[in-house]
Protein backbone atom coordinates (compact mmCIF):
# COMPACT_ATOMS: atom_id res chain seq x y z
CA UNK A 1 0.00 0.00 0.00
CA UNK A 2 1.65 3.31 -1.01
CA UNK A 3 2.08 5.71 1.86
CA UNK A 4 0.92 9.32 1.74
CA UNK A 5 3.73 11.65 0.81
CA UNK A 6 4.83 14.17 3.41
CA UNK A 7 3.04 17.02 1.67
CA UNK A 8 1.05 19.76 3.31
CA UNK A 9 -2.32 19.01 1.70
CA UNK A 10 -5.60 20.82 2.38
CA UNK A 11 -8.51 19.64 0.25
CA UNK A 12 -11.55 21.28 1.87
CA UNK A 13 -12.40 24.95 2.41
CA UNK A 14 -14.93 27.66 1.59
CA UNK A 15 -14.82 31.10 -0.03
CA UNK A 16 -17.35 33.94 -0.35
CA UNK A 17 -18.78 31.95 -3.25
CA UNK A 18 -20.53 29.84 -0.58
CA UNK A 19 -20.29 30.43 3.18
CA UNK A 20 -16.65 31.43 3.68
CA UNK A 21 -15.58 35.02 4.35
CA UNK A 22 -12.47 35.25 2.11
CA UNK A 23 -12.58 35.59 -1.65
CA UNK A 24 -11.03 32.73 -3.64
CA UNK A 25 -7.83 34.67 -4.38
CA UNK A 26 -7.40 35.58 -0.70
CA UNK A 27 -7.94 31.97 0.37
CA UNK A 28 -5.28 30.86 -2.10
CA UNK A 29 -2.85 33.39 -0.61
CA UNK A 30 -3.66 32.30 2.94
CA UNK A 31 -3.22 28.63 2.07
CA UNK A 32 0.16 29.37 0.49
CA UNK A 33 1.29 31.55 3.39
CA UNK A 34 0.40 28.70 5.74
CA UNK A 35 2.58 26.26 3.82
CA UNK A 36 -0.06 24.37 1.83
CA UNK A 37 1.45 22.61 -1.20
CA UNK A 38 -1.64 20.94 -2.64
CA UNK A 39 -4.88 22.82 -2.24
CA UNK A 40 -8.56 22.45 -3.19
CA UNK A 41 -11.36 24.99 -2.97
CA UNK A 42 -14.60 23.12 -2.23
CA UNK A 43 -17.46 25.61 -2.02
CA UNK A 44 -20.91 24.30 -1.19
CA UNK A 45 -22.94 23.52 -4.34
CA UNK A 46 -21.09 26.06 -6.52
CA UNK A 47 -18.00 25.98 -8.74
CA UNK A 48 -17.75 29.63 -9.82
CA UNK A 49 -14.79 30.37 -7.51
CA UNK A 50 -12.57 27.73 -9.09
CA UNK A 51 -11.07 29.67 -12.02
CA UNK A 52 -9.80 32.51 -9.79
CA UNK A 53 -8.65 30.14 -7.05
CA UNK A 54 -6.82 27.94 -9.55
CA UNK A 55 -5.09 30.81 -11.28
CA UNK A 56 -3.76 32.37 -8.07
CA UNK A 57 -2.84 28.98 -6.58
CA UNK A 58 -0.79 28.07 -9.64
CA UNK A 59 0.89 31.51 -9.73
CA UNK A 60 1.98 30.88 -6.14
CA UNK A 61 3.33 27.43 -7.03
CA UNK A 62 0.68 25.32 -5.27
CA UNK A 63 -0.82 22.29 -6.90
CA UNK A 64 -4.51 23.11 -7.36
CA UNK A 65 -7.32 20.55 -7.20
CA UNK A 66 -10.71 21.83 -8.42
CA UNK A 67 -13.33 20.83 -5.88
CA UNK A 68 -16.94 21.02 -4.76
CA UNK A 69 -18.90 20.09 -1.62
CA UNK A 70 -22.31 18.79 -2.66
CA UNK A 71 -25.26 18.81 -0.25
CA UNK A 72 -26.96 15.40 -0.31
CA UNK A 73 -29.97 14.06 1.56
CA UNK A 74 -29.46 10.46 2.63
CA UNK A 75 -31.92 8.64 4.90
CA UNK A 76 -33.61 11.92 5.78
CA UNK A 77 -30.46 13.72 6.85
CA UNK A 78 -27.82 15.89 5.19
CA UNK A 79 -24.54 14.34 4.11
CA UNK A 80 -21.82 16.37 2.40
CA UNK A 81 -19.98 14.79 -0.49
CA UNK A 82 -16.76 16.45 -1.60
CA UNK A 83 -15.76 16.03 -5.24
CA UNK A 84 -12.07 16.43 -6.05
CA UNK A 85 -10.46 16.80 -9.44
CA UNK A 86 -13.74 17.71 -11.10
CA UNK A 87 -14.18 19.56 -14.38
CA UNK A 88 -15.98 22.77 -13.34
CA UNK A 89 -17.43 23.20 -16.81
CA UNK A 90 -19.18 19.83 -16.92
CA UNK A 91 -22.83 20.30 -18.00
CA UNK A 92 -24.56 17.64 -15.87
CA UNK A 93 -22.65 18.69 -12.75
CA UNK A 94 -23.60 22.32 -13.29
CA UNK A 95 -27.25 21.49 -13.95
CA UNK A 96 -27.40 19.42 -10.78
CA UNK A 97 -25.85 22.22 -8.73
CA UNK A 98 -28.35 24.76 -10.10
CA UNK A 99 -31.19 22.58 -8.83
CA UNK A 100 -29.67 22.30 -5.35
CA UNK A 101 -29.14 26.06 -5.15
CA UNK A 102 -32.70 26.80 -6.23
CA UNK A 103 -34.01 24.93 -3.19
CA UNK A 104 -31.90 27.13 -0.89
CA UNK A 105 -33.88 30.33 -1.47
CA UNK A 106 -37.22 28.87 -0.45
CA UNK A 107 -35.62 27.13 2.54
CA UNK A 108 -34.04 30.40 3.67
CA UNK A 109 -37.48 32.06 3.62
CA UNK A 110 -38.77 29.29 5.88
CA UNK A 111 -35.82 29.63 8.25
CA UNK A 112 -36.52 33.38 8.46
CA UNK A 113 -40.20 32.69 9.23
CA UNK A 114 -39.22 30.34 12.05
CA UNK A 115 -36.74 32.86 13.44
CA UNK A 116 -39.34 35.64 13.31
CA UNK A 117 -41.69 33.45 15.37
CA UNK A 118 -38.82 32.96 17.83
CA UNK A 119 -38.37 36.73 18.20
CA UNK A 120 -35.71 37.36 15.55
CA UNK A 121 -37.11 39.67 12.86
CA UNK A 122 -35.65 40.53 9.45
CA UNK A 123 -33.21 37.65 9.33
CA UNK A 124 -33.72 36.92 5.64
CA UNK A 125 -32.43 40.35 4.71
CA UNK A 126 -29.81 40.07 7.44
CA UNK A 127 -28.49 36.75 6.16
CA UNK A 128 -28.61 37.98 2.59
CA UNK A 129 -26.26 40.83 3.48
CA UNK A 130 -23.67 38.20 4.43
CA UNK A 131 -24.20 36.00 1.38
CA UNK A 132 -21.75 36.67 -1.43
CA UNK A 133 -24.22 34.98 -3.73
CA UNK A 134 -27.93 35.63 -3.02
CA UNK A 135 -28.80 32.22 -4.47
CA UNK A 136 -26.46 30.46 -2.09
CA UNK A 137 -27.83 31.47 1.25
CA UNK A 138 -26.90 29.08 4.05
CA UNK A 139 -27.41 28.66 7.77
CA UNK A 140 -23.92 30.08 8.23
CA UNK A 141 -25.13 33.45 6.88
CA UNK A 142 -28.07 33.45 9.31
CA UNK A 143 -25.69 32.61 12.15
CA UNK A 144 -23.35 35.49 11.28
CA UNK A 145 -26.29 37.90 11.25
CA UNK A 146 -27.49 36.66 14.63
CA UNK A 147 -24.06 37.02 16.23
CA UNK A 148 -23.79 40.53 14.75
CA UNK A 149 -27.15 41.47 16.33
CA UNK A 150 -26.20 39.98 19.67
CA UNK A 151 -28.76 37.16 19.79
CA UNK A 152 -25.87 34.81 20.58
CA UNK A 153 -22.19 35.32 21.38
CA UNK A 154 -20.80 32.71 18.97
CA UNK A 155 -21.76 30.91 15.78
CA UNK A 156 -21.71 27.64 17.70
CA UNK A 157 -24.24 29.05 20.16
CA UNK A 158 -26.57 30.00 17.29
CA UNK A 159 -26.42 26.44 15.95
CA UNK A 160 -26.88 25.00 19.45
CA UNK A 161 -29.91 27.16 20.19
CA UNK A 162 -31.59 27.82 16.83
CA UNK A 163 -30.16 26.39 13.64
CA UNK A 164 -28.59 23.01 14.35
CA UNK A 165 -30.32 19.77 13.41
CA UNK A 166 -33.56 19.37 15.42
CA UNK A 167 -33.33 22.94 16.73
CA UNK A 168 -36.40 25.15 16.32
CA UNK A 169 -35.31 27.27 13.35
CA UNK A 170 -33.68 24.48 11.35
CA UNK A 171 -35.38 23.65 8.08
CA UNK A 172 -33.91 20.61 6.39
CA UNK A 173 -32.94 21.16 2.81
CA UNK A 174 -34.03 18.74 0.14
CA UNK A 175 -30.70 18.16 -1.46
CA UNK A 176 -29.30 15.86 -4.16
CA UNK A 177 -29.58 12.07 -4.10
CA UNK A 178 -26.32 10.31 -3.22
CA UNK A 179 -26.32 8.43 -6.53
CA UNK A 180 -26.73 11.64 -8.52
CA UNK A 181 -24.00 13.49 -6.63
CA UNK A 182 -21.57 10.63 -7.29
CA UNK A 183 -22.57 10.42 -10.94
CA UNK A 184 -21.93 14.16 -11.44
CA UNK A 185 -18.56 13.94 -9.72
CA UNK A 186 -17.48 10.83 -11.63
CA UNK A 187 -18.79 11.97 -15.01
CA UNK A 188 -16.85 15.22 -14.61
CA UNK A 189 -13.64 13.28 -13.92
CA UNK A 190 -13.49 13.62 -10.13
CA UNK A 191 -13.24 11.44 -7.06
CA UNK A 192 -15.99 11.37 -4.42
CA UNK A 193 -15.22 11.81 -0.73
CA UNK A 194 -17.59 11.54 2.25
CA UNK A 195 -16.93 14.80 4.10
CA UNK A 196 -16.50 14.87 7.92
CA UNK A 197 -18.31 11.57 8.65
CA UNK A 198 -17.97 12.25 12.37
CA UNK A 199 -20.54 15.03 12.11
CA UNK A 200 -23.49 12.92 11.03
CA UNK A 201 -26.05 11.84 13.54
CA UNK A 202 -26.66 8.31 12.18
CA UNK A 203 -26.91 5.05 14.09
CA UNK A 204 -24.09 2.52 13.60
CA UNK A 205 -26.40 0.51 11.33
CA UNK A 206 -27.13 3.58 9.21
CA UNK A 207 -23.43 4.44 8.99
CA UNK A 208 -22.75 0.92 7.73
CA UNK A 209 -25.47 1.28 5.11
CA UNK A 210 -24.16 4.69 4.03
CA UNK A 211 -20.60 3.40 3.62
CA UNK A 212 -21.85 0.28 1.76
CA UNK A 213 -23.99 2.30 -0.62
CA UNK A 214 -21.24 4.86 -1.20
CA UNK A 215 -18.82 2.07 -2.02
CA UNK A 216 -21.32 0.36 -4.34
CA UNK A 217 -21.77 3.63 -6.18
CA UNK A 218 -18.02 3.82 -6.75
CA UNK A 219 -17.27 6.31 -3.96
CA UNK A 220 -13.52 6.48 -3.50
CA UNK A 221 -12.64 8.16 -0.22
CA UNK A 222 -13.62 9.51 3.18
CA UNK A 223 -12.25 12.43 5.14
CA UNK A 224 -10.18 11.09 7.99
CA UNK A 225 -8.42 14.30 9.02
CA UNK A 226 -10.77 17.28 9.07
CA UNK A 227 -11.28 20.35 11.21
CA UNK A 228 -14.58 18.76 12.27
CA UNK A 229 -13.00 15.65 13.80
CA UNK A 230 -11.49 15.10 17.22
CA UNK A 231 -8.25 13.12 17.53
CA UNK A 232 -10.33 10.08 18.50
CA UNK A 233 -12.36 10.50 15.32
CA UNK A 234 -9.14 10.63 13.24
CA UNK A 235 -8.51 7.10 14.53
CA UNK A 236 -12.11 5.97 14.16
CA UNK A 237 -12.40 7.00 10.50
CA UNK A 238 -8.92 5.78 9.64
CA UNK A 239 -10.30 2.38 10.71
CA UNK A 240 -13.36 2.86 8.52
CA UNK A 241 -11.08 3.65 5.57
CA UNK A 242 -9.13 0.43 6.21
CA UNK A 243 -12.26 -1.70 6.63
CA UNK A 244 -14.01 -0.46 3.50
CA UNK A 245 -10.92 0.04 1.37
CA UNK A 246 -11.56 3.77 0.99
CA UNK A 247 -8.81 6.21 0.21
CA UNK A 248 -8.35 8.93 2.83
CA UNK A 249 -8.65 12.69 2.53
CA UNK A 250 -7.59 15.61 4.62
CA UNK A 251 -9.01 19.15 4.75
CA UNK A 252 -9.44 21.96 7.25
CA UNK A 253 -13.00 22.94 6.20
CA UNK A 254 -11.78 26.48 6.81
CA UNK A 255 -14.52 29.14 6.55
CA UNK A 256 -13.23 32.20 8.38
CA UNK A 257 -10.26 33.33 10.50
CA UNK A 258 -12.55 34.11 13.43
CA UNK A 259 -14.80 31.07 13.24
CA UNK A 260 -12.95 27.99 12.09
CA UNK A 261 -11.38 25.49 14.45
CA UNK A 262 -8.56 24.67 12.03
CA UNK A 263 -6.76 27.09 9.76
CA UNK A 264 -5.71 26.23 6.22
CA UNK A 265 -2.65 24.00 6.20
CA UNK A 266 -2.70 23.30 9.94
CA UNK A 267 -3.72 19.64 9.89
CA UNK A 268 -1.71 16.59 10.97
CA UNK A 269 -0.57 14.08 8.33
CA UNK A 270 -2.72 11.10 7.42
CA UNK A 271 -1.74 7.77 8.99
CA UNK A 272 1.03 6.46 6.74
CA UNK A 273 -0.63 3.13 5.93
CA UNK A 274 -3.69 4.78 4.36
CA UNK A 275 -3.77 5.50 0.66
CA UNK A 276 -4.28 9.23 0.19
CA UNK A 277 -6.97 10.32 -2.25
CA UNK A 278 -4.29 12.45 -3.94
CA UNK A 279 -1.61 9.71 -4.01
CA UNK A 280 -1.38 9.67 -7.82
CA UNK A 281 -1.89 13.43 -8.33
CA UNK A 282 1.48 14.58 -7.00
P1 LIG B 1 -26.54 24.71 5.17
O1 LIG B 1 -25.82 24.22 3.96
O2 LIG B 1 -27.32 25.96 4.92
O3 LIG B 1 -27.35 23.64 5.84
O4 LIG B 1 -25.44 25.16 6.22
C1 LIG B 1 -24.48 24.24 6.64
C2 LIG B 1 -23.24 24.99 7.10
O5 LIG B 1 -23.45 25.47 8.40
C3 LIG B 1 -22.04 24.08 7.19
O6 LIG B 1 -21.38 23.99 5.96
C4 LIG B 1 -21.20 24.79 8.21
O7 LIG B 1 -20.43 25.78 7.58
C5 LIG B 1 -22.22 25.47 9.09
N1 LIG B 1 -22.45 24.73 10.34
C6 LIG B 1 -23.18 23.63 10.53
N2 LIG B 1 -23.20 23.26 11.82
C7 LIG B 1 -22.46 24.19 12.46
C8 LIG B 1 -22.09 24.40 13.81
N3 LIG B 1 -22.50 23.57 14.77
N4 LIG B 1 -21.32 25.46 14.10
C9 LIG B 1 -20.91 26.31 13.14
N5 LIG B 1 -21.22 26.16 11.84
C10 LIG B 1 -21.98 25.13 11.52
MN1 LIG C 1 -20.11 25.61 5.36
MN1 LIG D 1 -19.61 20.14 5.19
MN1 LIG E 1 -17.23 22.28 4.15
Task: Write a compact overview of the structure shown.
The chain is an alpha/beta fold. It has helices at 24-33, 50-59, 91-117, 123-130, 139-148, 155-163, 178-187, 204-216, 231-244, and strands spanning 9-10, 38-41, 63-74, 77-84, 191-194, 221-226, 247-251. It has a domain at 4-89 and 190-251: Metal-dependent hydrolases (TIM Barrel, Alpha-Beta Barrel).
Q: What is the topological layout?
A:
Elements: E1 9-10, H1 24-33, E2 38-41, H2 50-59, E3 63-74, E4 77-84, H3 91-117, H4 123-130, H5 139-148, H6 155-163, H7 178-187, E5 191-194, H8 204-216, E6 221-226, H9 231-244, E7 247-251
Parallel strand pairs: 1-2, 2-3, 5-6, 6-7
Antiparallel strand pairs: 3-4, 4-5
Helix pairs in contact: 1-2, 4-5, 5-6
One manganese (II) ion is lined by residues 69, 80, 195-196.
- The proportion of strand residues reads 5-15%
- What is the number of beta strands? 7
Give the name of the CATH superfamily of the domain at 4-89 and 190-251: Metal-dependent hydrolases
Q: Let me know the average pLDDT.
A: 96
Which class of the domain at 4-89 and 190-251 in CATH terms? Alpha Beta
* CATH fold-level topology of the domain at 4-89 and 190-251: TIM Barrel
**Low-pLDDT segments:** none
Bound small molecules, by name, code or SMILES, are:
adenosine monophosphate, manganese (II) ion
N-to-C order of helices and strands: EHEHEEHHHHHEHEHE
Outline type: globular
Structural class: alpha/beta
Specify Rg, calculated over alpha carbons.
18 Å
Widest beta sheet: strand line-up: 1-2-3-4-5-6-7
Major sheet summary line: 7 strands, mixed
From the N-terminal CA to the C-terminal CA, the straight-line distance is: 16 Å
Number of helices: 9
CATH architecture of the domain at 4-89 and 190-251: Alpha-Beta Barrel
Give the helix proportion (percent range). Answer: 25-40%
